Amino acid sequence: xxxxxxxxxxxxxxxxxxxxxxxxxxxxxxxxxxxxxxxxxxxxxxxxxxxxxxxxxxxxxxxxxxxxxxxxxxxxxxxxxxxxxxxxxxxxxxxxxxxxxxxxxxxxxxxxxxxxxxxxxxxxxxxxxxxxxxxxxxxxxxxxxxxxxxxxxxxxxxxxxxxxxxxxxxxxxxx
Length: 175
What we know:
Helices cover 41% and strands 13% of the residues. With 175 residues, it is of the alpha+beta class. It has a domain at 68-174: CATH 3.30.1330.60. The protein has a four-stranded mixed β-sheet with strand order 1-4-2-3. The longest helix has 29 residues, at 2-30. The mean pLDDT is 80.
């Protein structure tokens, strides 16, 4: 019996190791091997050298200042600027500063109330009030010409108060 044990044990061990080895081989054989990764190297193609294209900048449109200001208003029989005119005149100053050498005419006007002489004098005083404001805002006084129109150039009917209010004005135009 000893002999059978001696022979049986190594045979069993051998069979066991063969079966384990064969199982691993079956498992390995069952899995498909990954496909080899083929890396293609790009073929270099030389392009003919072209000179760099110069970027041509389009000319920017020049913003032309707006030099037509007409809503500088005054109270009846007064050359004192209305508070509402300050904002308008500040815009005038900003626009004129864009072209500081431009020449302008400041046209004073009045409504038809009162004598023609008084209205003429009042229209000149109103134009001078505007010029003083502009000069105090940093503009060159020599670029302004004063013109008093009196009541001769109304923009509204002098028969109504609303029309007379509109006629008490100063207009600034480019010379």
